[in-house]
Amino acid sequence: MGKKVITSEKAPAAIGPYSQAIKTKELVFVSGQLPINAFTGTMPEGVEEQAKQSLENLKNILDQIGLTMEEVVKTTVFLKDLNNFNIVNEVYGKYFTQGYPARSAVQVARLPKDAEIEIEAIAICE
Fold first, then answer.
1. Cα–Cα distance between 105 and 101 in angstroms, integer?
2. Domain residues for 105?
3. DSSP code per residue over the chain
4. What is the Cα–Cα distance from 57 to 63, expressed in whole angstroms?
5. Cα separation of 2 and 18, whole Å?
6. Can you give the CATH number for the domain in which 112 is found?
7. Residues 6 or more apart in contact with residue 25 via CB below 8 angstroms
8. What is the rounded distance in angstroms from the CA atom of residue 126 to the CA atom of residue 115?
């Protein structure tokens, strides 16, 4: 089995030449999720609501193939302003339970669509 492209209508469509996610035999690689509501095409105001939307998009993509946030083993959080780390951490903690995934969080100069946050993930699918 090679790779399989994963697409969910409950997450925003890719805005370039990439896939929402790629599934291999053992892993799922979820592309960075911007905080865009797939149904309205809008982005909420504020980093807290944007973090929730990015995580909901991630959750919806995993759900498309029968996985949950429990299978996530690594995330990368891209923030426009690292001063918002505590706010994001609060939201993030509501989506993951004990046995948290490994994580990196970095500040970036700019994100697509001028979002405050983008989150990517790797999950297991054995």
1. 12
2. 4-124
3. ---EEE--TTSPPPSSSS-SEEE-SSEEEEEEE-S--TTT----SSHHHHHHHHHHHHHHHHHHTT--GGGEEEEEEEES-GGGHHHHHHHHTTT--SSPPEEEEEE-S--GGG-SEEEEEEEE--
4. 10
5. 17
6. 3.30.1330.40
7. 1
8. 33
* Token pair listed for 93: 């903690």
Tokens coding 63: 């759900």
Residue 122 has phi, psi (to 5 degrees) of -125, 130
Q: What is the reported pLDDT for 1?
A: 61
How many residues are recorded in the chain?
A: 126
User: 67-106: per-residue pLDDT in tens?
Assistant: 999 999 999 999 999 999 999 999 999 999 889 999 999 9
Beta bridge partners of 19: none
Number of domains the chain is built from: 1
Give the C-alpha separation, 111 to 120, whole Å.
Answer: 13
Q: Give CA–CA dist 111/117, Å, rounded.
A: 7
